[in-house]
Amino acid sequence: MINKPDKHDITQNVGIHPFFQMLILFSLLIGLFFIGSAVAVGVITTKYGAQTVTDVMAFNLTSQHDLNGLWILQIVSTTIPLFITPILFAWIIVRQPHEYLMDRSKFPIVLLLVAFVIMFFSMPLIELLSNINQKMVLPHFLKVVDDWMRSSEALAQKAQDAMLKMNTIGDMLFVLAVVAFFTAIAEEFMFRGCLQTIFVKWTKNQHAAVWITAILFSAFHMEFFGFLPRMMLGVLFGYFVVYSGSIWPAVVGHFVNNGTDVVITYLSQHKKININPDDQHVFNYAGYIISLIIILFLFWVYRNIALGKKQVLL
Fold this sequence. Notes:
This protein is mostly helical. About 75% of the residues lie in helices and about 0% in strands. The model is unreliable at about 1-15 and about 310-314 (pLDDT under 50).
């Protein structure tokens, strides 16, 4: 049985129906996105000039100023709004910060380690879903949409490759801080904290809440050809929170997923390893099956530890 919140937590009425809570949450996020974008453009223009803004918006990253501008745009228009939105919503709108941010610290600390191991063994399954996703093609009458999505993701990939170009360890630590650490906290507070809590209250079903939130989490990134693996990650993070009652195992899982990509990319760029971070054919079907079995077993362990059961096998 899932470790459900107290009845008081689920049924407590803050005067706002969950549907309207969702609308307020997303409206707040969109508003802060616009404000952050305006601030970022102002900072980039002041610091580097209007041409840098034009280059960044077109992903025409030909100079160090363009790359710096891209980082400013990413942090100020996306990362900071994603962090501020759930905090404002939880503290000011619904006035139940601990219930909506799920920032409880009282949970078995060993769950952080189990979450770490689950993420490590999930890599083959993520690769499989990514390969399946890449082969998906929209119907012929939607070819224009298909072409647009592929070109958009190609531009996004170009920007990502530029941001993940790390010349020094200092560069790697900076990227780890922004892409892995701060992004993990911001997105988990937003999705597994506020949004998943809203859907728990709305549907009265934690499984439904996990899956709906995971779908919206993946859709939020607007990467059609990475939709399935990111949705699976959202499901993993969602159940980390459901079983533990805390956001922190999900933050650890999110950090491990993003951070692993950063470290592997850095090591590959500096010829420390022979792994290509863009290679989607590292594992075989046996690896995929083993990955699924291990993940299911580890989730059983995670769930039993979270529920305080004594018969857990370690």
